[in-house]
Amino acid sequence: MSTRPALDAVADALAAAGTCGYALVTGKPCPTHGKPTEAVATVTVRAAEDDPERITVEASSHGISRTVVAYALRSAADAFDEAARAEGDEPIPYTLTEQAEAVEEPRTPTVGDRYVKRANPDAGRIVTVNRVWEAEDGHTAVAYEWDDPRASYSGSACPLDVFHRTYETQR
Questions:
Q1: Do 65 and 136 sit in the same domain of this protein?
Q2: Would you say residue 128 lies in a domain?
Q3: Dist. CA 145–CA 114, nearest whole Å
Q4: Is residue 109 part of a domain?
Q5: pLDDT tens digit sequence for 26-68
Q6: pTM of the shown model
Q7: What is the Cα–Cα distance from 157 to 55, expressed in whole angstroms?
Q8: Which helix H or strand E contains 155, and what residues bound it?
Q9: Tens of pLDDT along 85-138?
Q10: What are the C-alpha distances in Å from 66 to residues 42, 82, 98, 101, 148?
Q11: DSSP 115-137
């Protein structure tokens, strides 16, 4: 299978947009065409030659927030799933989404519970919960402390959802 027609189509699309490969690759105006690059995200899905059920996916974005692109891709996936159902095909479940939906709400910590910080700075720091209360706005808040030989006392407090994003139960 020749890729030449696809390359020609890309070149035609770039010419119609008034830009060229230089601008897309560098993100700078092309010295020949002088036009700035448009914000673009691309996703290429290819079936393997030996197995049409196996695919590879290549994705990139330039000038567009990756979170915006991810949202757009999820919306496109939903549209593809609807089209598949309309054709009598059952969509393949997306494991990560199913796992995210199956995750139970994290429990409210109790005084004395120990947690580990997930990421830098100070990844691996062990904290001990020393107070849990309902804040004036109705949200649960958590106060905690940790040992730091450089300070006489080290502690902090935050809303429960922030605490659970930052710390995980010590195993």
A1: no
A2: yes
A3: 10
A4: no
A5: 556 665 555 555 677 788 888 878 877 778 778 787 777 777 7
A6: 0.40
A7: 46
A8: strand 154-159
A9: 899 888 777 655 445 455 555 789 999 999 999 888 888 899 999 999 998 888
A10: 11, 24, 22, 22, 37
A11: EEE-SSSSTT-EEEEEEEEE-TT
